[in-house]
Amino acid sequence: MQMVKSPMSRKLTRNGGLFYPLIALALFVTFLYLSFGDLLWFSYNKEIEISFVERNGTQFFVDGKVFYINGWNSYWLMDHAVDYSKRSRIRGILQAGAKMGLTVCRTWAFNDGGYNALQISPGRFDERVFRALDHVIAEARKNGIRLMLSLVNNLNAFGGKTQYVKWAEKEGVALSSSNDSFFYDPTIRRYFKHYVKTVLTRRNVYTGIEYRDDPTIFAWEIINEPRCMTDPSGDTLQDWIEEMSTFVKSIDRKHLLTVGLEGFYGRKSPKRSTGNPEFWAADLGSDFIRNSMLSTIDFASVHIYPDHWFHKKFEEKLKFAAKWMLSHIEDGDKELRKPIMFTEFGLSNENEDFEPVQRDRFYKMVLDIIYKSAKRNRSGAGSFFWQFLVEGMELYNDDFGIVPWERPSTYQLITEQSCRLAREHDILPTQTEYLKDFCTRTSV
């Protein structure tokens, strides 16, 4: 059967075969979308204006306004963003955080060796994973959330200092098999400096901004929970912190910097007996005051895990945690003259006497102390829940993790803290219209 060409098809044919180039162009555009669609998407989204957070004495400021933080931990963001099918979870937790009025999320900017490693070996990086971190930062910016990015782990999870020691051993240059050689081996120090420089100078493929120039990043944390138990005097860790903090500041003077301490008082501290949970805490090679005193460190960090530090009844744990917080806020006010951030706090659900209401009481105590500090313009500058997840993430959970909206009483505690901090020091422009409306309708 003979086909009759339409007038349009005859026109296309007469004009030098225009039909086929159009098909080719359409296929090319489709290829661009499939290959780089997420890149193009971000360029068309409305940019949220966001400014660098600065420090003046014991307080943080944004655009000249005092900034007290209601924050949370979701360490898993980069790891999840590697898999495109899981990226909805990143968007989900950041949108939920914004809806609750939270302003800063603390997360890992490292994965050394192993599965989905950002740093495959010293100086070798997986671009696919780097793009995942790019995505996390860009998505946070879209939702008005700032990020506190940690650069290495003292623990073994996601590689940590042990992985650096293994790399040095493999090359036959390690001074010691102890993972504390991370702090004093010159080769390992060089590995870490190269890593830090690569991350800080990374240009985000979605935003086009180098990390060191991006105000979405609230601060850098040098190392999560550093301990150097082979030198309880604290000298080794102190030297390392001084060297690495100076190195970070030589590359990036725009961002705030903290060590990543748990908050224990060292052997030379007058609070080693009265401030620590137990005697062992003075022999971990860290010292809250000494490590945080350096001019290159902008604020001090503290963690709160009384049920991991000693075995006592809940009421005693609660009493100690309050004393622990107030002691460090006093240090910020009188000794350090810097903000104090409680960057991890949690209560385990594996305690023998655990009841969900205990967790709410613990959370409320932490949040109340931060609020009172904000109300009095003191150094207790913020707190970060450990940890928040979304549904279906059981493999990433631990005995502290929560999906915050699954327990209404917990959700209310979180949002009320956001509201009362906002009432004391104004809601930031990046906080959502939802929060502005919610806080005007809710009495705290």
Automatic annotation (TrEMBL):
Positions of the Glycoside hydrolase family domain: 51-388
Subcellular locations according to the entry: Secreted
Record flagged with keyword Hydrolase: yes
Any matching Pfam family: GH5_mannosidase
BP terms from Gene Ontology: polysaccharide catabolic process
InterPro entries given in the database record: GH (IPR017853), Glyco_hydro_5 (IPR001547), MAN-like (IPR045053)
Top-level EC class as recorded in UniProt: hydrolase
GO cellular component labels: extracellular region
GO MF, one annotated term: mannan endo-1,4-beta-mannosidase activity
Catalysed reaction equations from the record: Random hydrolysis of (1->4)-beta-D-mannosidic linkages in mannans, galactomannans and glucomannans
Keywords from the named record: Glycosidase, Hydrolase, Secreted
EC number(s) per entry: 3.2.1.78
Major location (coarse): secreted
Family stated for the protein in its record: Belongs to the glycosyl hydrolase 5 (cellulase A) family.
UniProt-recorded name of the protein: mannan endo-1,4-beta-mannosidase
Organism, as annotated: Nicotiana tabacum (Common tobacco)
Lineage: Eukaryota, Viridiplantae, Streptophyta, Embryophyta, Tracheophyta
